Amino acid sequence: MTKLNQVFSTGIVLKAAKAFSDKGPAVFTIKVPREGTKAHDFIPVKAFGDLKKTAIDNLSENTVVSIEGHLQSGSYEKAGRKVYTLDLIASKIQPAELERKGWG
Predict the structure, then answer these.
(1) For strand 64-78 and strand 81-95, is the pairing parallel, antiparallel, or unpaired?
(2) What is the pLDDT of residues 58-91, one digit of tens each?
(3) Which residues, in sequence order, are bridge partners of residue 70?
């Protein structure tokens, strides 16, 4: 059976994963090239539970990773305006190797 809202993405970690509190997730951003262009997407990733520690201990700048998870939208108020967010919530993180030709 196919799961709804299932995402697979491979990219380069921009900064080491870190947590802002003991109870909060590990957060990091991956850089993913857009197919057929020189542009990139920057995808914010959150890792909870056991993956939080794994991410903090193993994901440093320029690590290439494959991530499986789901998308989660949210919003918050900033300076009186509503800001919308979209995060990749990781359920699996694996090191990856790939050709970085054209990743810039």
Answers:
(1) antiparallel
(2) 999 999 999 999 999 999 999 999 999 999 999 9
(3) 89
Tokens of 13: 């970690």
Helix (H) or strand (E) holding 23: none
How far CA 3 is from CA of 7, 26, 29, 70, in Å, comes to 10, 24, 24, 10
Cα distance between residue 102 and residue 49, in whole Å: 34
Q: Quick one: which of 98, 42, 40, 87 has its CA closest to 65?
A: 98
Which domains are delineated in the chain?
A: 7-95 (2.40.50.140)
| Per-residue pLDDT, 1 | 75
Q: How many residues does the chain have?
A: 104
Please write the tens of the pLDDT for every residue from 21-42: 999 999 999 999 998 999 999 9
